[in-house]
Amino acid sequence: MASGTCVPRLFLACLVRSAAGVAALAATVAVAEEDAADRFRTRVLPVLQENCFDCHGWGAEEGGLALDVDPAAGAFLTDTETWWKVLKNVRAGVMPPEGYTALPDEAKQSLATWVKSDVFGIDPHNVDPGPSAVRRLNRYEYGNTIRDLMGIDYNVEIEFPPDDSGFGFDNVGDGQSLSPMLVEKYLRAAQSIVDQAVPTVTRVIQHQEYRGRDFRSDDGSRRGERMSVDDEATVTRAFTLDEPGAHRVVVNAMVDGSFEFHPRRCVVTFSVDGQQRSQAEYGWQEKLKIEHVFDEEFEAGEHTLTFSVRPLPLAEGDQEEDDFSNEPHHAHYFVRSVKVEGPLDPPKWQRPPNYQRFFTRDQPPSAPDERRAYAEELLERFAGRAFRRPVDAATVDRLAALAESVYSQPDKTFEAGVAHAMVAVLASPRFLLRADFPAGQRVDSTYPLVDEYSLASRLSYFFWSTMPDQELTDLAARGQLRESLDAQVERMLADDRSRRMVREFVGQWLRSRDVENVSIDALAALGLKEEYDEILEEFRRSFRGRRPRNRGANAQSPEEQARAREVRERFRELREVRDTFDGGIRRAMRDETDMTFEHIVREDRSVLELIDSDYTFLNEDLADFYGIDGVQGRRMRKVTLPQDSQRGGVLTQGTMLTVTSNPTRTSPVKRGLFILDNLLGAPPPPAPPGVPELEEAAEKLGEQQPTLREVLALHRESALCSSCHARMDPLGLALENFDAMGRWRDFDNGRPIDSSGNLVSGETFASVQDLKTILATSHRRSFYRCLTEKLFTYALGRGLDYYDVHAVDTIVDELDENNGRVGVLIRGVVRSDPFLRHRGDPAARVSARDDDQPPAATR
Which of 135, 208, 553, 668 could form a disulfide with 797 if both were Cys (CB 3.0 to 4.6 A apart)? Predict the structure, then answer.
């Protein structure tokens, strides 16, 4: 009986203690809210009343924002979204708006401190690291990971569609999609990659394979990949054999052409070491495929393979070649490949390429239990590398069972079974997705660290866009990666693979990778399109006038012939202009931007050199394009700019100037938006519906060719447009001396260009050089903050939110104290709580029970 009454009493005692705890907690929260309200009234409200209430108080709600709400209302002090917008606008100088006195630095700091502490609830000693994003390997990461894991290159640009982006980067989980079509592509890719990379037999016949381009004439003028039936030619390829014995030679060739009635024929002879092995006559045939197979007995040493083409005389009655001169026609013999296989004697067969990458023994065991254990050993190692962490026993058991189901069949090898299981690994979500896990659970509200394997993956995909290498994995396995973090960061940055971070981060942040595909009409951008069209038509008329039938009375006069020569010369000039902005120039522009950032990283220089510097990276073609003398050769190299040069910094590089232009002209609006979004971190909101196009404003001016400055000034008169364009237009107009392709100009449509302007923050400038100076001094902290946020987004694979403000502010302060050295930025990101810690909430774990079943295509 006594024991029966003990449970209710114990339960009641616990309930009383719990109620007391809840009451105490509620009282603590109430006191905290009261203190927050008091701090708001004493520290923040006076600042808002003096600087913000004209638009956001005393009944005014500009933009739907009212700041004169009773601070006692709990929602007002916990509206993180609203206060984060307020904080960003104040820091960016957007608020107070143009025409009002700028907020003093002390007032900004007071507001920021209150928002971070009382609204965001940030504890500097226990910072919320934010959610750990689950993200899919983008196609660039997938390709690199496959190369390191499987030892082959997989053409991801052909096999996979372009990745979606979120917050400006294609490695952000929130922006990625995983459609059924993409899942199907991953399944096919897994099978294709394993087929290419993993041997399915223990021994194979050796072979050497040569393409048509490997066959050359003695003088090097001809190659076997394309030999005309009209011309006599001989091409040869030498090769060496280490082993004597029986071999097989397999020749693959093709005959093709572009004109059905090509009359000529030829004899093609194939010889081995000067001995004829085949001879056949060929003429035009559409894509005629040819294969010859010969068995040869070779000695060890050097040997030769030779193709000879001998044209045959035209048969009687065939048209002379001149009769076909006005029609495009040709026929060719194409050497596609010659493969030499052997020795054919089985004892001389060798282990397949890549065998040791996947298999640790020369031969699999014969006993069933030993074979199963060996399969488990191999698949545990492979899956651990692919999943980037140790694999549980249940997963290994299922993979080994899958392998056994194949290699136990009479006609299947052990290697084929293991390869089949590897397909399942590459199709697994644990390979395709990246998820981070905590090292433990939250203790006393402290956010746990990410485990060492998650840290290894974060580092490797941040710096190298690929899986962790062996050193990172070994350190993680020993639990020593975190303690050697600085040394590993230094090692990884020194590795050539860190260029991937430069190319991917800069390519998306500064849009340098877009320059190779952006549409620019060089003639239209230079105002030469109409002249080109007119000259082209006159050139065509002139060409028709020179045809042989225009003789005698129809012959051109000397004046017409002179004009025809002028037209041809001008047409060539305009065609050169049309082709000026070609792929070589575009690639050099991208390299210029990427190499500038890489130089700053390698030399640990100030990131402010991205805004303004006395150097850039050029080759001869790009230097000529920019009008810079003294650069010779195709190699990109660092070039010191003249003192009076307007170049220097990303704002004056061809990448930024081109990707922010329209196809036929510059766009000050796009250029200004680029600066606000990517350099100052203060993009304006999207344009409201119903905003008139610039062309409508141009029509109102009634001039023949108004300048863009005049058009934009009229456009800003619209109340819908004025606030945003007041911020964007001066920044973009400062770059008007650079045309749509990034070349310097002093005039536009015959009128001098005015690049002066006034910023909404109060500064004035006369040129782009002045603007760069302003951005690198007065607005340097905004640039530091923007760059830090962009790098965080890229490193974490997620967008930033209010809980990340402390981590960003800490790095911005350190950058300001260290003259913007990039090493401070990179180490700051890697050492930060968002990078090193985990919320401890259940990550979107990939099930270890369901995800490793073989895909339907491979069962």
Answer: 135
Q: Which residues pair with 233 in a beta bridge?
A: 309
Which CATH number fits the domain that encloses residue 247?
Answer: 2.60.120.260
Q: Position 657: which residue type? A: L
The dihedral sign for the CA sequence 563, 567, 573, 574: positive
Q: Which of 301-315, 403-417, 431-445, 708-722 has the highest mean pLDDT?
A: 403-417
**What residue type is assigned to position 752 of the chain?**
P
Contact indicator for 138, 766 with CB cutoff of 8 Å: no
* 200 lies in some domain: no
Question: Range of 252's domain?
Answer: 207-316+325-348
Residue 227 φ/ψ, nearest 5 degrees: -125, 125
**For the chain, what percentages of helix, strand and coil (3-state, to nearest 5) are there?**
50, 15, 35
What's the CA gap between 200 and 168, in Å, rounded?
43
- Residue 435 pLDDT exceeds 90: yes
Q: Name the nearest CA neighbour of 469 among 815, 144, 44.
A: 144
DSSP string computed for 749-805 = TTEE----EE-TTS-EESSHHHHHHHHHHTTHHHHHHHHHHHHHHHHHTS---GGGH
Beta strand pairing status for 301-311 and 265-272?
A: antiparallel
Tokens representing residue 92 in the block = 């960016």
Measuring CA to CA, which residue among 127, 54, 347, 205 is closest to residue 807? 127
Paired tokens of 455: 């840290």
Query: Is residue 330 domain-shared with residue 215, that is, in the same domain?
Result: yes
Tell me the average pLDDT across 122-129: 93
Please name the residues in contact with 229: beta carbons below 8 A apart, sequence gap of 6 or more.
255, 262, 264, 265, 266, 282, 283, 284, 309, 311, 331, 332, 333
* Listed residues 119, 140, 163: the one ending a domain: 119
306-362 pLDDT per residue, tens = 999 999 887 654 544 434 444 445 788 999 999 999 999 998 898 898 899 999 999
Contact assessment for residue 636 and residue 623, using Cβ atoms and an 8 Å cutoff = no
834, part of any domain = no
Q: How far apart are CA 644 and CA 666, in angstroms?
A: 24
> Does residue 272 form part of some domain?
yes
Residues 477 and 542 in one domain: no
456 in the same domain as 547:
no
- Looking at the structure, tell me whether residues 461 and 564 fall in a common domain: no
Give the residue with greater pLDDT, 314 vs 274: 274
- Is residue 13 pLDDT above 60, yes or no? no
Helix (H, G, I), strand (E, B) or coil at 180: helix
710 vs 188: CA distance, rounded Å: 56
- The conformation of residue 506, written as its DSSP 8-state character, comes to I
User: Is residue 35 in a domain?
Assistant: yes
Q: Is residue 452 within a helix (H) or strand (E), and if so which, with residue range?
A: helix 452-463
Q: Which of 71, 103, 119 is the last residue of a domain?
A: 119
pLDDT reported for residue 535:
81
Strand extents, DSSP E, 20-96: none
pLDDT bin (cut points 50, 70, 90) of residue 455 is: very high
Question: Residue 109 is encoded by which pair of tokens?
Answer: 């700091």
pLDDT greater at residue 550 or residue 583:
583
Both structure tokens of 544: 């028709």
For residue 466, the SS3 value is coil
**Facing residues of 291 across strands?**
252
Same domain, 246 and 341: yes
First-to-last alpha carbon distance for the chain, in angstroms, is 63
Residues 797/135, Cβ–Cβ less than 8 Å: yes
Question: Residues 337, 249: one domain?
Answer: yes
The verdict on 335 and 218 lying in the same domain is yes
DSSP for 203-214, please give it: -B--EEEEEGGG
Peptide bond into 46 cis (omega under 30): no
Closest CA to 664 of 467, 563, 532: 532
Q: For residue 341, give the DSSP letter.
A: E
Burial of 551 (0-12, 13-18, 19+ CB in 10 A): exposed
Tell me how far CA of residue 371 lies from CA of 203, 351, 377, 379, 403, in angstroms.
18, 19, 10, 12, 10
